[in-house]
Write a structure and sequence with these properties.
Number of domains of chain A: 4
CATH architecture of the largest domain in chain A: 2-Layer Sandwich
Radius of gyration of chain A: 48 Å
CATH superfamily of the largest domain in chain A: Histidine kinase-like ATPase, C-terminal domain
Largest sheet of chain B: 5 strands, parallel
Radius of gyration of chain B: 13 Å
Distance between the termini of chain B: 14 Å
CATH architecture of chain B: 3-Layer(aba) Sandwich
Structural class of chain A: alpha/beta
Shape of chain B: globular
Number of helices of chain B: 4
Shape of chain A: elongated
Number of strands of chain B: 5
Strand content of chain A: 15-25%
CATH class of the largest domain in chain A: Alpha Beta
CATH topology of chain B: Rossmann fold
Oligomer: heterodimer
Number of strands of chain A: 17
Order of helices and strands of chain B: EHEHEHEEH
Number of domains of chain B: 1
CATH class of chain B: Alpha Beta
CATH topology of the largest domain in chain A: Heat Shock Protein 90
Strand order of the largest sheet of chain A: 2-1-3-4-5
Strand content of chain B: 15-25%
Largest interface: A-B, 27 and 24 residues
Helix content of chain B: 25-40%
Strand order of the largest sheet of chain B: 2-1-3-4-5
Structural class of chain B: alpha/beta
CATH superfamily of chain B: Response regulator
Chain lengths: 493, 123
């Protein structure tokens, strides 16, 4: 048996006709349900979506037209036939108006019935198919609409400015970020973008639109939109190509690069400072050597020797500077391998003061230490902590008075160790204190003349202390001494 | 013989320059900061001033040169420069930089003497 073609409902109060029709249609491979009165017909016809319903017009309980109306109201695509022996022009019109597909006059021959049903079934298939297509199309539209709004939301939310400009220079799309960058609050679709955008961008758009195809590519430029580095943007203009390679428009993306520019500026300032600091001792050494080598200048041996000794001192300071720079760069790159161990600060202070003994003696400076008992231990890299104390104590010697004093006091302060290093030295003026931790800053006044240094020592100390989440402060009075205070966290775990 | 004032905060540069100029017979006075520099120029009235561009602050030399000119001191100024060229800060003679010539450090005795002599001859 071939598969069933469709589902048919036969509604007729006349048993013989009902069963005859059922058999006839089942032979044609239709699935057939029957109802013996109008009320049952409505119930079945509503309960499932029949392909075809054949409804007798005259039934004792409910009129065939009422059955038709009820079924059509729920399943408008069920193909309905009205079967009647009392065919009249009026009922034919009325049944068509209510949605009947055809009219089968009784009595009918099997061929007539099957012909009509086949016609109806084809119609049903067409209706169902077009219904499916319609549904599919609607779903597609919803999908497109939601995709579009999703994209819209994304573009509106990103911090980069986006503008789309058509072939004739009109704005066809923009997001709020774009308005913000160009300081425009009244721009609408269709406005001439070329009138509102900064000249360099307009220039690029014109280039992209030029007939010369070699110019049709993506361009990026950096623009200072607000002076004094307040707003720097990078604007990228990309042509939108059509299938035939002609240009439909241009997409302009504006990215805020202000922070990047600031970093770039800091970097180049740093490079020029380094260049200056490196060149100063080199220039001095080269100057001395040029004189010694110059045959037209006669210099006594002692002076020559003095110049060579001074050259060596300058070269040593140059080496110190390069080492400090390497340390800073290692610290910034965090490539420095740390060996974290338990450190006893009193031991560090002793070893540093031993190392600096010669300098202490030369200046006649006495070093006094006070360690609170029990001495707290900290967890850190011994080399780094050594560096902190070396830099601070050697500063306390260099900037001290002859026969001066250095006090080192280490105590507990909550979950911190408080390290205080005080000297009885020349002290600092307020503006010197403010710039103290700046790279290459060295206080220069009548009292600091002759004191050498790289200008990086304190900046290194600060970097080390802060890398352990500690804090360094300075108290100083010009002429009477300086105290550095370090709060270093005690690592309990 | 001409008197030359050298103002530079680097004692090694001061000594080397002094030695070169003295060996050519010039008299030399020196100062290591802008304040002392201004003083020796007003007191000794040199025939030529050699001025370092950068002392305590990156533009000390410029300010001092401007101060000389503003106060009617027209003595020729030869300016020592260092990294300015390397960092793209190339300057020439202008109202902002009222100097007569430049010498790039490190100092070559030959070039220094040539520039000093030519400035003194112009006067």
């Amino acid at each position: 048996m071939s598969e069933t073609k469709g589902k048919i409902l036969v509604v007729d109060d006349e048993k013989g006709l009902r069963i005859g029709t059922q058999r006839l249609l089942e032979d044609e491979n239709f699935l057939v349900d029957t109802a013996e009165n109008g009320e049952q017909g409505i119930r079945l016809g509503i309960a499932s979506d029949y392909d075809i319903a054949i409804i007798d017009l005259k039934m004792p309980d409910v009129d065939g037209l009422e059955v038709l109306k009820q079924i059509k109201s729920i399943h408008p695509n069920t193909i309905c036939f009205i079967a009647t022996a009392y065919a009249s022009y009026e009922t034919a019109i009325e049944s068509t108006r209510l949605g009947a597909y055809g009219y089968i006059p009784k009595p009918f021959t099997p061929d007539e019935l099957i012909y009509q049903v086949e016609q109806g079934f084809r119609q049903r298939q067409l209706v169902v198919e077009s219904e499916l297509l319609k549904k599919e199309r609607e779903e597609n539209l919803i999908e497109i609409a939601s995709e579009k709004s999703r994209l819209n939301t994304i573009i509106k939310a990103i911090s980069d400015g986006v503008l789309v400009i058509n072939r004739i220079g009109e704005l066809v799309y923009f997001n709020t970020a774009a308005l913000k960058y160009f300081d425009l609050d009244s721009l609408s679709i269709g406005d001439s973008a070329l009138k509102h955008l900064p000249a360099p961008i307009v220039e690029i758009i014109k280039k992209i639109y030029s007939p010369d195809q070699s110019l049709q590519k993506t361009y990026s430029i950096q623009l200072e939109l607000k002076s004094n580095n307040a707003l720097f943007v990078e604007s990228t203009c990309t042509p939108i190509l059509q299938n035939d390679k002609s240009i439909a428009g241009v997409v302009v993306v504006i990215k805020n690069i202000t922070e990047f520019k600031k970093i770039e500026q800091i970097k180049s300032q740093f490079v020029s400072m380094v260049a200056h600091e490196l060149k100063t001792p080199m220039a001095a050494v080269q100057g001395f050597l040029n004189i010694i080598l110059d045959d037209t200048i006669s210099i006594p041996y002692d002076t020559q020797r003095d110049y060579l000794v001074r050259s060596v001192i300058r070269l040593k300071s140059l080496t110190d500077l390069v080492n400090d720079l390497l340390d800073i760069s290692r610290m910034e790159l965090k490539t420095k391998q740390r060996e974290i161990t338990e450190i006893k600060l009193d031991e560090i202070v002793h070893s540093v003061s031993q190392m600096l003994e010669l300098e202490l003696k030369k200046k006649g400076v006495t070093l006094i230490t006070h360690f609170e008992e029990p001495m707290p231990t900290i967890k850190a890299d011994a080399n780094e902590i050594n560096r902190v104390f070396t830099n601070l104590i050697s500063n306390a010697i260099k900037y001290n008075k002859d026969k001066g004093k250095i006090d080192i006091n280490i105590s507990h302060s909550g979950s911190y160790v408080l390290i205080q290093i005080s000297d009885s030295g020349i002290g600092m003026k307020t503006e010197e204190k403010n710039r103290l931790f700046q790279e290459f800053y060295r206080a220069k006044n009548e009292k600091t003349r002759g004191i050498s240094g790289t200008g990086l020592g304190l900046s290194i100390v600060k970097k080390i202390v802060e890398s352990y989440y500690g804090k360094i402060e300075v108290e100083s009075e010009y002429g009477s001494g300086t105290t550095f205070k370090i709060h270093f966290p005690i690592n309990t775990n | 013989m001409a008197l030359i004032a050298i103002i530079d905060d680097d004692p090694d540069i001061l000594d080397a320059s002094s030695l070169v100029l003295k060996s050519k017979g010039f008299d030399v006075v020196t100062a290591t900061n802008p304040v002392d520099g201004y003083q020796i120029v007003t007191e000794r009235n040199p025939n030529l001033i050699i001025l370092d561009v950068m002392m305590d602050e990156p533009d000390d030399g410029f300010f001092l040169a401007q101060k000389f000119r503003k106060n009617g001191i027209t003595t020729p100024i030869l300016m020592y420069t260092s990294v300015s060229k390397a960092i793209g800060l190339e300057f020439g003679k202008s109202d902002m930089v009222p100097v007569d010539d430049f010498v790039e450090k490190p100092i070559s005795p030959e070039e220094l003497v040539k520039k000093v002599e030519s400035l003194l001859q112009k006067k």
